[in-house]
Amino acid sequence: MRISLLVLFVVFFASAVQGGDAKDKNLKRMVTKLVERQKIVDTVNMLYMSTDAKDWHRVAKLFTVDVHFDVRSLGAKEVELKSGDEIAKGWREGLKSVAQVFHQSGNFIVKQWGSRAEVKCYAIATHYLPNKEFKERTFVGSYEYGLVKVKGIWKINKFVYRNKYIHPPFE
């Protein structure tokens, strides 16, 4: 498991200034919370990276059985309840003519309540289309995810995409 520099800093700093059982428990809680936050963000980033790799099996596994799926900003008529398999199949079909996909994400805001979490972030996706006149299409937007911990693993149960713009736009 990857440990961020922030976790290492907290461990080092807290151990240098604190002592005693109560303070050790507080330090352990802080580190656990930071580690869980990183696992949550890693789950979201794994969705982007698995989509870029067109690893549809992994994409499907990152979702729960029932997912609140909202892509109305891209033209969907309503919010749907879909399975991870249905989402992966739709993306596989929608991206089959795209030679390469690249996501870049950031500005993560994470809220966690026990085995539930919410993530908001920005992301840009570039689709490389070598056989088209414009070669690239870029999607810029924000995401809202809901996650639940299932058997110790964070899974996505809510997916909301809010499109800001697409360049060049679809005709």
Outline the biggest β-sheet: 6 strands, mixed
Strand order, sheet with most strands: 2-1-6-5-4-3
CA radius of gyration: 19 Å
Output the number of helix runs: 4
- Low-pLDDT ranges: none
Q: SSE order, as H and E?
A: HHHEEHEEEE
* Alpha-beta content class: alpha+beta
Q: Based on CA inertia axes, which overall geometry fits?
A: elongated
In whole angstroms, how far apart are the ends? Answer: 45 Å
The number of E-state strands comes to 6
Strand content: 35-45%
Features of this protein?
171 residues, alpha+beta, six-stranded mixed beta sheet, elongated
Describe this protein's structure.
It is a single chain. By secondary structure, this protein is of the alpha+beta class. Helices cover 36% and strands 40% of the residues. The chain is built from 4 helices and 6 strands. The protein has helices at 5-17, 21-52, 56-61, 84-94; strands at residues 63-70, 80-82, 100-113, 116-128, 136-150, 153-167.
Topology:
Layout: H1 5-17, H2 21-52, H3 56-61, E1 63-70, E2 80-82, H4 84-94, E3 100-113, E4 116-128, E5 136-150, E6 153-167
Parallel strand pairs: 1-6
Antiparallel strand pairs: 1-2, 3-4, 4-5, 5-6
Helix pairs in contact: 1-2
Brief summary of the model shown:
With 171 residues, the chain is α+β, with helices and mostly antiparallel strands.
